[in-house]
Amino acid sequence: MSLSNLSESQRHGMSELFRKIAPVADELGELFSARGYQIALVGGSVRDVLLGRIGNDLDLTTDARPETVLELIRDWADSIWTIGIDFGTVGVRKGNWLLEITTYRSESYDPKSRKPDVVYGDTLEGDLARRDFAVNAMALRLPSREFVDPHGGLDDLHAKVLRTPALPERSFDDDPLRMLRAARFASQLAFTVDPAAFAAMTAMAERIEIVSAERIRDELNKLICGDHPREGLKVLVDSGLASHVLPELPKLRLEIDEHHRHKDVYEHTLIVLEQAIDLEENGPDRILRWAALLHDVGKPKTRRHEPGGRVSFHHHEMVGAQLAKKRMSELKFPKDVVADVSRLVELHLRFHGYGTGEWTDSAVRRYVRDGGPLLERLHKLTRADCTTRNKRKAQALSRTYDQLEERIARLADEEELGKIRPELDGNEIQALLGVPPGPVIGRAYKFLLDMRLDKGVIGKEAATEALRQWAHENGLPPE
């Protein structure tokens, strides 16, 4: 197929791509062609160029087997990595370009296995037919620069639709992760899912459970960090996939009747997520986004009907923190990510005890101390959590939080709040009490820290005297 089929802007994108990657593309194409092998730029790389986005990562596909690819590029590449070679992929760095060269293949799951089986193919057309969506099944042969689009991916790109090259039931049965990828691309590209594909996802949602937690986690991470996460999450929930990979989300759609009044928690959550994103300063913050998504997951378990038609959710932040920790641990997130997200969920209501500014300086210090390195994210999550349509109430809450931040800044200048420590360190406590490291030292440290938070800086002499008094009251007369 000729490049003349492309729009003017798409032809310009292709020209820019080749201007940027030549001579890399030409050299690589000639290198493979001279040995009788095919190679083509493929998948997301072609799609993104046609969407006007050109990065430094390129995906290529070839009929050469991985061991042959290694032989062909050994003297050409600046560096090589083989972490994905079991799946047919060889990584290459050439100058500023990062290339992944993958042998023509297909992936399919045994009904009882969590790991895909990789089967190598022999033709580019066969490789494209096995890809997830038509918009990812376009290619550019090298070095001829022939545009290959056997499944109408270019038309789908114009229509912003995700359609499978093969029958969707077959495609999703071969690799159930493609159902999650549909939701992920809805988030990243703001594309809609073709009705036939969506119907297959809905019917086959349970099949996603055969996929490993790590692969599911990676797709969910990309979805939550996309430009349009609401769209991706809506695909997950409406198709039923969320019930298998993130069941806390659809559970937020609590039934609301005329007698018991509360916010639509699911819609509220999506708005909080969007408002948190608006407060980001340096690109997607996955910790903040996951905390915003999960901040109210404790509400279904804590909902109580109160007199007068009210509904309460007492301690939902504590329950939610445990649920967030459990879900993210099951999805194999790193421990620090699990800890940070669950801590933000636990703290997200703390500000509402501030009222109209009644907190003492001690309470402000504790707020900063509890927020720790997450304090800036806690500020953003707290502000994002205001979704009331009452403009007067929203403005009052915003002003009150402004005042809290001003108090934090003032105390920080005076006391270095971010570095709050007891005025006696561990060695000094041990020397005063005459006991080795252990639980007693921990209790003494906590006593001094609480006093520091309550009273601010009182000086080492006063801190020493207070510790002596504490030790005496606890039957531990210091030496």
TrEMBL record:
Pfam family, one: PolyA_pol_RNAbd
Coiled-coil regions listed in the entry: 387-414
GO molecular function annotations of the record: ATP binding; metal ion binding; nucleotidyltransferase activity; RNA binding
CDD domains: HDc, NT_ClassII-CCAase
Cofactor(s) listed: Mg(2+)
Keywords carried by this UniProt record: ATP-binding, Coiled coil, Magnesium, Metal-binding, Nucleotide-binding, Nucleotidyltransferase, RNA repair, RNA-binding, Transferase, tRNA processing
GO biological process: RNA repair; tRNA processing
Keyword Coiled coil: yes
InterPro entries tied to this protein: HD/PDEase_dom, HD_domain, HDIG_dom, NT_sf, PolA_pol_head_dom, PolyA_RNA-bd, tRNA_adenylyltransferase, tRNA_CCA-adding_enzyme
Positions of the HD domain: 265-411
PANTHER family in alphabetical order: MULTIFUNCTIONAL CCA PROTEIN
Descriptive protein name: HD domain-containing protein
Species the sequence originates in: Streptosporangium roseum (strain ATCC 12428 / DSM 43021 / JCM 3005 / KCTC 9067 / NCIMB 10171 / NRRL 2505 / NI 9100)
Lineage: Bacteria, Bacillati, Actinomycetota, Actinomycetes, Streptosporangiales
